Amino acid sequence: MKKLVFSAIVLVLMIASVVTSEAKKEKPYVTINVMYFHGPTRCQECLLIEQFTHQTLTSNYYRELQSLKVTWKTADFTSDSTMGYEEHYKLETQTLVIARIENGKEVKWIKLEKVWDYLKDYPKFEKYVKTAIKKLMK
After folding, report:
1. What is the mean pLDDT of residues 111-133?
2. Closest CA to 48 of 111, 138, 121, 103
3. Mean pLDDT for the chain?
4. What's the rounded Cα separation, in Å, for the pair 100 and 33?
5. DSSP state of 114
6. What share of the chain is helix, strand, coil (3-state, %, to 5)?
7. What is the distance between the alpha carbons of residues 114 and 112, in angstroms, rounded to a whole number?
């Protein structure tokens, strides 16, 4: 009888240990990096992509920008300092890229090539960018 009680206690402790370790698994710290890569010469459309993206981020993700859960940067993709980005994101022209970072490591990214299609319609541009950010935040 004592062996049975002892075995039951050990079993309960083992189950509690497994449940506790599962509960302790933390969600990764997620950051969304929004990056606009442009060339050395900036046309009106290129400047508008940057402006629309900035407006979308500050209008919809102000708190996330302040807390660095969403980051925003622009860079010349032809510059020597961005050479790794050019190869990694397969940049051939001005491009908006959104990447999901988990605990400091990039795990997914999306190249938003349709931004050019929405330059005459800010609400569609905004929705396109927000949809990509939401997809990566999941």
Report:
1. 97
2. 121
3. 88
4. 6
5. G
6. 55, 25, 20
7. 6
Amino acid at 103: N
pLDDT at position 132, please?
A: 98
pLDDT tens-place string over residues 36-79: 999 999 999 999 999 999 999 999 999 999 999 999 999 998 88
Amino acid, res. 73: K
Query: 63: left (phi > 0), else alpha (psi -120 to 50), else beta?
Result: alpha
Residue whose structure tokens are 């509960």: 23
CATH 3.40.30.10 fits 31-137, yes or no: yes
**Phi-psi region at 32: left, alpha or beta (left = phi > 0; alpha = psi -120 to 50):** beta
| Residue ranges per structural domain of the chain | 31-137
What confidence score (pLDDT) does residue 113 get? 94
The 3-state DSSP class for residue 70 equals: strand
Q: What is the pLDDT of residue 25?
A: 74
Residue 58, both tokens:
């500050």
